[in-house]
What does this fold into?
Amino acid sequence: MIPEEPTRRQAVEWVERGNELYEGGYYEDAIELFGRALESDPGFPKAWYNKGVALDKLERYDEALECYDRTLEIMADRSDVWDNKGASLGNLGRFEEALECFGKALDLDPKNTGAWCNRGSALGSLGNYDEALRCFNQALEIKPDFGVARIEKGRVLIRLGRIKEAEDALFQ
It folds into this structure.
């Protein structure tokens, strides 16, 4: 008897189950199921991506980067994947590389508020506060109620000694 060939359908089922565990905060278990999906279909980009996101939650950034790279090998035109890869690099203190990723994310989707905010955070970490402010302002122009961008903008303004502007940004 010939064993059944792995299928995308099986991989999709594992990813769906993994997503449920992820949503419940069971990241390790989700990672295991995403791994099973990849055993069924090693070329399934959603499984690689979701595994990377779960690894990020556990602050396993190097492993997450591997997953994002595998995703990008399959589909390099996803702004969200470039953004997450950049965020992982930023969490590792690799800000210049992170900025490259955020740039690619924004080339693909100029309205990606997460990439604008993450780019601003990386620039702020490098001490480029004026450019960081421009990024946070761009994110807020696209999505005025984006709380993370508002908070990060306030932090940068405080670093610049612009306390009144920081208060306005934080308490609008």
Q: What stands out?
A: The longest helix spans residues 8-23. DSSP finds ten helices and no strands in the chain. The two ends are 68 Å apart (CA to CA).
